[in-house]
Structure formats: structure tokens, C-alpha cells
Design brief:
The structure is a single chain. With 107 residues, this protein is mainly beta. It has 2 helices and 4 strands; from the N terminus they run βαββαβ. 9% of the residues lie in helices and 18% in strands. It has a two-stranded antiparallel sheet. β2 and β3 form a beta hairpin. The longest helix is centred in the middle third of the chain and has 5 residues. Bound molecules: iron/sulfur cluster (2 copies).
Length: 107
């Protein structure tokens, strides 16, 4: 079977592929453009921060893949809900257990 006849999902010979065989995939035309994409609509769970428990270690800030942790005066105080997609990484990584995930309430 020639390369042209193979189904697109068949990657059994991927080691022999040249650049022309790879899908283009996502394109990031400029650095820092993720702020333009409001991924908050994907969320089914929302993180809730207990500011009393927060020790200000900043781990949630560094782990959040969407840069959605809002820090003020060295502590986590809120979430950028336009970009937080509810992955739960911040809650998982917080050593103080100051973040919990709750079911998202959609209107
Ligand atoms: S990981 Fe937890 S304790 Fe650390 S800054 Fe974030 S909320 Fe606060
Ligand atoms: S749930 Fe995920 S995207 Fe949202 S603030 Fe936490 S780490 Fe960031």
C-alpha cells in the first residue's frame, strides 16, 4: 500500500516520514496569544481558594497551565475564570489544601 492509499491514522511507518507527511497541527503565530482564547467555557469544575489556608507558596501559580491564578500581596486570592479550564492541577498541587474543586454551575 502506498503512502497515498494509507489511512491518515495509520502511523506504523512514522519513522520514515519526512516533513511533508506530518499534519500542520496548531499554529501559534505570535508569542503570548493564549490570552485571546477564553478557555473558561470548557470548564465543568471550578477551583475555589480558601485564602485563610493559603501560605503563599505560589505552587498553584507556577503549575497552572493557563496562568489563571490571581496573586495579590503574595497570596492566591482568586481565579481568572475567563481562562481557567478547570483542570484541577492547582488543587492537586496545593500543599496547604487551600484549593478545592467544585462543580461548575452554568446558567
Ligand atoms: S499552592 Fe496553595 S498555598 Fe500555595 S499559593 Fe497556591 S493556594 Fe496558596
Ligand atoms: S483548575 Fe487548572 S486552569 Fe484552573 S486555575 Fe487551576 S490549574 Fe489553572
Amino acid at each position: 500500500m502506498s503512502a497515498a492509499e494509507k489511512p491518515r491514522w495509520d502511523v506504523s511507518d512514522v519513522d520514515t516520514w519526512g516533513p511533508d507527511r506530518h499534519e500542520l497541527g496548531a499554529t501559534i503565530p505570535v508569542a503570548g496569544n493564549s490570552v485571546e482564547f477564553e478557555t473558561g467555557g470548557w470548564r465543568s469544575q471550578v477551583p475555589v481558594i480558601c485564602t485563610e489556608k493559603c501560605t503563599g507558596c505560589m505552587l498553584c501559580y507556577f503549575y497552572c497551565p493557563d496562568a489563571s491564578i490571581i496573586i495579590e500581596d503574595g497570596k492566591a486570592v482568586g481565579i481568572d475564570l475567563e481562562h481557567c479550564k478547570g483542570c484541577g492541577i492547582c488543587a492537586r498541587e496545593c500543599p496547604a489544601k487551600a484549593i478545592s474543586m467544585k462543580a461548575e454551575e452554568k446558567e
